[in-house]
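Let's sit down with a protein and look at its sequence and fold side by side. Please make up or recall a protein chain and show it to me in full. Label the sequence line and the structure token line clearly, so we can match residues to local backbone shapes. Go ahead whenever you are ready, and we will take it from there.
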Amino acid sequence: MIHAFFSGNPSGSPPTLARLAWSRLAFGPRPEDLASLSSFNLMDFLDEQLSYEDIDDSACEAYVNGLSRVAPGGPPVPPLDASLSDLRAYITSAGANDAYLQRHLWTATYARALLSKRQLFEVMVDFWTNHLQTNFHHYTKYWEDYYVIRQHALGNFRELIGASAKSPSMLYFLSNAYSDGSNPNENYARELMELHTVGSYSYVPGPGYRTQPNYTEEDVHTAAQILSGWTTARIRGGNSEEFLFNATRSWPRHHWQEKKLWLGNDNYYRIPFGGIEQGERLLDILAEHPSTAYFISFKLCRRFISDWPDQFCPNAIAAGAQAFLNSHGDIRETVRAIILHPDFANSWGQKVKRPFEFMIAFMRGLGLSEMINFLPNDWSGLGARTFQRQIEVLGQVLFEFAAPTGLPDVGLAWWTTGQLFDRWTLANMIVNLFFGEQRHNNLPDSLLLNSLLGLPKTATEVVDRLIDLLIGRAVVPEHRTMWINYLGNGNPNATISNSAHARLRPLIGAIAASSYFQWR
């Protein structure tokens, strides 16, 4: 019933531009979105999603704010917009645990992806969370999500990396909080250039593309000196995790002398004697660097168009980079230029769903309006921790990845037979949790599933409805016939009276695990 996971090219017909956009610029359409697909206009959809502040998302925010924050032990988890002082008070109280913070943020992130009408905004939050990777090695990751990533996800790039550079989560993750001018820690300075801005090698088209270094080891050391003294109040003996520039002579002190950086410029960038302004000037230089524009556009094209954008869509990269340069790092304008480039509309078969996208797209396709709360220690058969364990098996645990690169956004990282069967297991768990658990002697009838499928219907009609909800394009006729014959036990006109049908739930899981549903 499940054919090969991937064959190199998607089986069946390509989707409409509407379905492609909903799959790439969002986490997939919900049933109530399908009626508008026939009148879809990409520019209108994109403009609406980019102007996310104008979208009423109060229902989603009410749901997220209403999620239980009761932890398995100790005090309740603080709200998502908690201040650093509130988080410090929580984490130092008896029974508190940063794992509870992670599980609540995980729940809220999944819930927003599932329910938010600001879908592109949530996609961009996920993008920048990986681009500016930190994790729950320190509890301030919880603060960073709200005050850094969400504040700037569709804003200005310079403001985004400025906020990230002063985030206590980043300062601790890459050890800059402990960087002293006489012996600077180079971790953050190196990743700021290699992963966050210019890239190791030039991304500007021309003879030096991906071969000419963007910086030297001396540049790394100099940048580390520039950023020395960028720390937190707690490191200087205080109780707060707030950013602090240490202007004193005490450790970890700043290196005040004038600096020069090559960064691919034979005339050098020169930064005069100074304090925190040296770091601000470094961020200005990196944000305006041409290679930064092309590197950020490259990564956005990888997110929205192709795993291999330099081969598939170099002109889209150039369009995005030019928009970035012209707008001085306006993220909206950069995204707009990329999505409206013809390469986006012609990019079917270039992206696959990662586990996070798989789970959310499946739940949205089924019209589910409730998210699993991962906070409780519920190890029952379909309990929160059982779902957490299955997601861990799939390999995309939010806010936990150890490497500063962020989670990979290429199909080869998620393209295995084992991944297919683990996704199948997760899909079956979701179906059983929300539509009633099917056991050998128990075939529950779900009013929610009956309504979703419009039961009673024939086996053929049910399969076509599921294809429309979850796949949104024509499948190979033999595969459609196979699903119909399975559900109808060989009779395509068999009546599926209600959701207590023994083969209905397994069929939904099988469609979710088919190769059709893995493509994005």
DSSP finds 25 helices and six strands in the chain. The first helix runs from residue 17 to 24. The two ends are 21 Å apart (CA to CA).
